[in-house]
Every structure is written in C-alpha cells, then in structure tokens.
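Re: duplicated header lines in exported structure tokens

Our pipeline writes sequence and tokens for each protein into one text file. With two proteins the header for the second block appears twice in some exports. Here is an export where it did not happen, for reference. First protein block:
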Amino acid sequence: MEVNIEKTLLMCKSFMKEVKIWGCLKQTGVSLRYMMEFGSNPTQKNLLISAQFLHKELPIRIARRAIELHSLPHGLSHMPPVLKVRHWYLDSFREIISFPEIKNMNDEKEFTELIKAIKVRHNNVVPTMALGVQQLKNVFEDPDEIDEFLDRFYMSRIGIRMLIGQHVELHNPNPPPNCVGYIHTNMPPVNVARNASEDARSMCYREYGSAAEVRIYGDPDFTFPYVPAHLHLMVFKLVKNSLRAVQERFMDSDEVAPPIRIIIADGIEDVTIKVSDEGGGIPRSGLPKIFTYLYSTAKNSSSVEHEPSDIGTMENVTMAGYGYGLPICRLYARYFGGDLQVISMEGYGTDAYLHLSRLGDSQEPLP
C-alpha cells in the first residue's frame, strides 16, 4: 500500500514538473487576418498544420493558467470552485500532451474530437471562477491584484476557445456563406446588433414584464471581417445593462421609458458602436470600479452572470450578476485589437463605446 502511495506521489510530482516546463515555453499569437487567410482554404494539408500547431500551443497556454491557479493570493487557490477549475485545466493538459504526434488525417480527426471535448469541459469556467472569487469577496485588501489575474485568465480562455473553435469549425462541410470558421468575412454589424438587442429585450421582458425600445443607426449594407458571435456577446451585454438601468429608473414612473440608441460608425481604423441610454448614469465615484470583477451597478446582484455556455449561444444569462458583464466584454473587444470605454452622466444616462479594429492585423494579446 505504501509503495503505491509513494509511486502515486512521484507520478504527481513528475506531472507537475512537466506542467511547469510547458508553462515556461513561449506562446504564439495569431491575428484575425491570419486566421481568416489560413482558414480560407481548409485543405487536408492545412487542417493537419492547424492540428499540429494546436498540439504544441494549447498545452503551453493551459499549463500557464494551471500554474497561476495554484498560486493565487488570500487562499483563493484552495476554494473548492477554483480547485475544480484547476483540475479541468490539468486534465485537459494531460490529455493533450498524452496524445501522440499528429502525422496523418486519422490522427488529426482524433485530435479534433479530443479538443472538442476539452472545449465542452471548460464551458462553465466563468461562473465557477466567479463563485470562488465571490466566496472571498470581503478578504481582498487589494482588488486590483485579483482583477489583473482574472483579466489574464479570461483573456487566455477567450484565445484558447477561439483557436479550438476555429479549427473545429473549419471541418464544417457546409459552412455558412462568407464564413471562414468562426470569422464572417463580410459581417454586417447592424444585423448582429439587431439580433443581440432582440435577445437582450426578450430577457428583459422575462425579468421585468416590459423592455425599452432599441433604435439602431448605421448603414445596413456596411460589412467588415469579424467574429459575429463575439460581437453578439458584447452588444448583448451592453444593451442588457442599458435595458436594466432604464427599467429600474422608470419602473414606477408614468413616463414612457426612453429608447436605447445604438450608433454604428465605420472609420478607417475602427468600427465604433455606441450604446447610449437614459438610465440615470453611474456616479463618478463608481466609474473606476465598473471594470472590476467584484462590482455591479445592479440593485440586486444575487446571481452569477454566466457567459454563454458556447460561443454564439445565449443560455443561462441573467439580467444582473456579479458584475462580470463589462470586464468580460472589454476583454472580447481587446482580443482582436479593440477596446471598450464607458462615459457616464450621473442623473441622465450612460454611453458605452465599443471600438473594433477593422484592420484585423492585431496579434492576440497573450497574457
């Protein structure tokens, strides 16, 4: 019995040593333009190259996050939800490095099935991590430390899911028109904003029984290359915030709730989407906190804000959560070289400016 325990401990030490070795290797970032150009011709040769790249790249990214999850401050690493997430990362790392060298299309097919399953395993990482952080909310003397970690962690997660999802989607025998994996080469932002707004309004109706009108201003014929699911998620979160603010401000009023306005402008470098509401705004003292993970403007923040279980779906999302909407939204914007800014006029309303790079040549910001 003692021999077995000793053997298990040695195997465990050896495994963690390997995690640390991989975690020290250099990550390789890719750009939207590269993903689009490479995936535009998904030949067997290209799919094989893509799988071989992921076989080397994913363990590096996953190992880095597993190491960081082990050394968080204030006992966060020992919280059951965080331990659960860390085990997911370690299991995924083990499965990928155990997979033999990818030499032919049979290997590629098996590897693709493996990373598909890994992506599903990590579906609930955001709400699970939120639970762990929330359980220690009052312990953090310096919330910036946790915010910086979560920014790195979630940005890495966006990248991992994008790389896996893009590779898997390139196998689609009947891709939608103008789509290269997850990327739409001629995406109309007006259409995406309309769909995201309708989803947010439906949720508002379910929660409050009514929802303010959303008006969209922009050229319906304008298109640019982007990931529609990313844009849908960002606009959905911003409109959802605006709908809630307007609803709570005008709930007991005889006045008709003013509409939320979405303005889409196409510049030379950026496509900018402004979501503007008259929901009363955010106090100036609260503005520095809106991109932290432990702050919510909601009056009732009793439920975890779930990220969609898979990119492009809107299940399990609540009107108000633990304040993850804006920081996660900003990370999605920054992933392809954009950004998110929020300007508030207390007593009147809030304007959120979503900047999206239309050049597509920005490298992934690798944490």
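Second protein block, exported in the same file:
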Amino acid sequence: MNDVLITPCISFQCRLLAVKMTLLGLILVSSALLAGLCTAGPQVLRVTTIKEEPYAMSKGSELEGFCIDLLSAVSKKLDFKYDIKLVKDGRYGTTDDSGNWNGMIGEVVRGEADIAVAPLTLTAKRETAVDMTKPFMQTGLSFILRKDLASDDSQFLSLLNLFSTEMWMGVLVAYLLTSICIFLVSRISPCEWEQPEKENNFFTLSHSFWYTVGAMTLQGAGPHPKALSGRVITSIWWLFSLVLLACYFANLSLWLHSDNQQQSIKSFEDLANQNLIEYGTIKDSSSFNFFKNSNNPTYHRIYEHIKKAQSYSLNAEEGFRKAQKGNYAFIGESVSLDLAVARYCNLTRAPEIIGMRGYSIAAPLGSTLVKNLSVAILGLSESGELDYFRSKWWASSCVAKNGKSAPLKPTSLNGIFLLLALGLGLGVFLALMELAAKSRKIANTQQKSCCSVMSAELSQRFRGGEAMTPESSEKSKA
C-alpha cells in the first residue's frame, strides 16, 4: 500500500524538476541572445543613392553632397552605421512593362538595399511599393531657358528702381531742407536783403524750391545768391546734385548694358501658347508623368507637345546643355533648376512653380526605420541644419559675374549727405554772423544792446515787426 503511494509522488517530483530545468534553459538562452545583441554594436544599413549634383558627387573614392551630409547627420541621431553604394542602373525608380521596379526603388523592393537616400520624389505610385519618410526638401516644377531668349517690356517703373526707396526719401528730405535753408539765409543775411522795409526779396519760398530743382537738373534758375552764406549752401547743393546724378546715370548705364533677367515667358501657360521656343523634360520622370496625368488643359497640352516633338532629355545635365546651347526650355524640379542657374550664369528660371512635392528617403514596406528617420529629419529641419546644407551646396558662382545693377542705398553715399548737412549748417551760421555784424554796427550807432537790435532785425525780415533804423528812431522822437 505504501509503495503505491510513493510511486506517484516520485513521478510528480520528476515532472516538476523537468519544468524547472526547461525554464532555466530558456532563461540561459535568452540571456545569451541579449548578450549577443548588446555586443553586436550599431546596425549597419545598406544605402543606395544616385550620382547627381549636388546631392551625391564623387570626391576621390568617396562621395560628397547634400544627401551625404543628410545621411551622416541622420546616422548620428539614430546611432547606426551605413554602407553606401551607387544604384547599379543609374535610375531613380519606375515600373517597366511587366510592372517590376527598376532603379533605387527596385533595389529597396528586392531587398538589395535597406534605404534609398537621394532626391526621390514622394509620389502615390512609389508609396505603394515602398514606405517613404517625411520630405527633407520641398520642390516643384518650373523651367529654365537662356536669358537672351527672353525680354521684358512690362516694367514701366524700372528707372525708379535704380535708387532704393530709402535713397529716394533721403533725396527728398535733402531737397526740402536745402530749399528751406536757402529761403532762411536770403531772409537773414543783410548782404542779400539790406533794407527789408524798402526792398523786395527775390528769394521767396517758392523761388527757393524752384532754384533748388534747377540746380539739380544742372539748369540753374536766377537770380543767384549774392551773400557768402547763400553761395556756400548753393555750392554744396550743386556738388551734391552732381554726385547724385553721376551715381544715377552710372547705375542706369549698367542696367541698360546688363542682361535682362526678367522674362516675357513667366508661366507654363506662356510656354504652351508660343511655338518659338522648344521645351521638354526627362522622359518617364515624375515631371513628365505630372503633365501626362494632369487634367489641366494647359499642362496636358504641354505633354502632347513634348510627346509629339520628342523633345526629351535623357537626364538633367543634358537638359541644362540644351538650354544653354539653343532655343530650348528645360522643365524639371525647381531645386535642380536653381542649382543650374547658380552654376550656369546665362540661364534663368521662370518664377512660376507648380506641382509642389517633396524629396524623401525610401525604405521597404512595413520597415520600422521610417518613423525614426522621419523624426530625425524633422529635428534637422527645426534646428536649421537642413537650411545650412541647402546654402552650402547651392552657393551661386554667378554673384561676382552678375552685371545687373542693384538699387543704390543711402549708405553708399553717406559722405555726400554728411557734406550737405555740414554745408547747410555752415550757411545758416554765416548768415547769422552777417546779420550780427550789421546789428553790432547799428547798436554802436544808436547806443543800444546788440541783442535787441538783432531781434528787431529778425522780426522785420520775417515780417513780424519793424527794424530799428536811425531814420525810424528820429521819427519816433519827433
């Protein structure tokens, strides 16, 4: 009976021991796996890209460019290493007749690359094959053409644009102050107006304004000042006018001889409504498909023309060369066209941008990397690093060669404005000194204070009172 009871107990203990051993084994295996993951280091991602300036360019055996800097910054934020290679077929990614993807998108779909870092346009079709991050750059469609193919006759106020608004305001203030100072000096100076009660003063306020305008136009308007104070002011104003006119005509000459950068063809509608300038884009690109799939009549007409004329370009560089060489407008991504304008100084981009879209990083469908990459891109945008990368790789080489005149600002002529201010002050001071000399002479004759005589003279000259002269003094005594 006891043997029968002992046997089940032993069997239960064996099973319990077996369960404990199994749990211990699982714990040991899990610990080993965790230890292996911890010692494995950062994940190494296979990255595919395409050689295109300035996103990825060869520098010896390595690559440099906007996308290379972006990849480096993102890897530091997410703590991963990467092995970057150029796409084998040199394409971005489209589907062939059988529906298979080529280019960088195809390599990501087939598992040959973990991510694609390049100027990949975020489209609905690509989103069905891969997952794409938040855009790291916004762009749109525009077109470039040679500057000498376009002309602009719509800027009626171009002559006013030679001076900045601040400059015109400064000239106006200088004109008003000078005219008022000439009027004041002609009233104050006894050399200009010896006997206010008998003579007429030719320098009224209206004549002062007219005289200043005449001096600025190099014509003059008599009569001219006779007093030293008035001649000082008018001489300084003539010098100021000469310098101002010289600067204006120099800017005008530069503007007339510079290449006109404004376009008579400013929009895609203008481009579609003319037949003098040929236009096209890269075949089977997202730009081409935009016009192909658009319901806008103007855009669809552009697609029909490109298809009929076969005015394609194999790549962006070929489109840039065509635009430089002849009668051709190349349609493409606005950021790429901005780079072309910065590199090739005889090209200009149309102001219109349509079909706004973004450039994104591509990863396989369902990849957990997309969320982290998007957060990293947003962080770089908020910190200003993406703007720094853009200014670094889109720096223009045409700044020094550009001959277009910029509006002249007052800071460029600080010296002549200062000289005019000193001249006006000196002129008014000399006029007061001339009046003071006459008042002192009268005061000595009449045995009065110089200040009272000078006050009476000023009152008489501005028609506020009667000056105390010897003749008037004798009449009052009588």
